Amino acid sequence: MKLAFVIIPHFVKGISTRQLIKNIIGIFFKEFGGCTHYKVHGVWNDKEVSEEPIECEKIEVAVRDYRTNKFLEIAETCAMVAGVEELMIQHPDGTIMFLKGAN
Q1: Is the dihedral of CA 86, 88, 89, 94 positive or negative?
Q2: CA geometry: angle 47, 76, 1, nearest 5 deg
Q3: Which residue range forms the structural domain that includes residue 92?
Q4: What's the CATH number where 14 sits?
Q5: Tens of each residue's pLDDT in the chain, 103 residues
Q6: Quick check: 11 and 17 in contact, CB under 8 A?
Q7: What's the number of domains the chain is made of?
C-alpha cells in the first residue's frame, strides 16, 4: 500500500467546505476502508507570510496500487466541488500534484 492525501481548505471564498470534507472522509472510508484526517495550516502564493495562514484539512488514505485511479478520480472531483484554483494532493506514488479546480 501507498500513502496518498488531499488537502482541502476549510473555507473557499468565505464559504465553508465542512460538508465537502465530511463527504470525502466518508468516501475514503467506503472506498479504502478508512482514512486519517487532521487540521493543518499553510500559506499560498497569494498570501503574505505575515498574514494568517489558511486552515485546511489533510485527509490521508492508504491506497493499494490497483486503486490509484479511484483515488485520483475522487481527488479530481474534490478539486472541482471545492471551487479552488488548485488542490494539493499526494499521488499514491509519492508525487505532489496540484489539481485544477473549478475556479
Answers
A1: positive
A2: 105
A3: 2-100
A4: 3.30.70
A5: 999 999 999 999 899 999 999 999 999 999 999 999 999 998 876 655 557 788 999 999 999 999 999 999 999 999 999 999 999 999 999 999 999 998 7
A6: yes
A7: 1
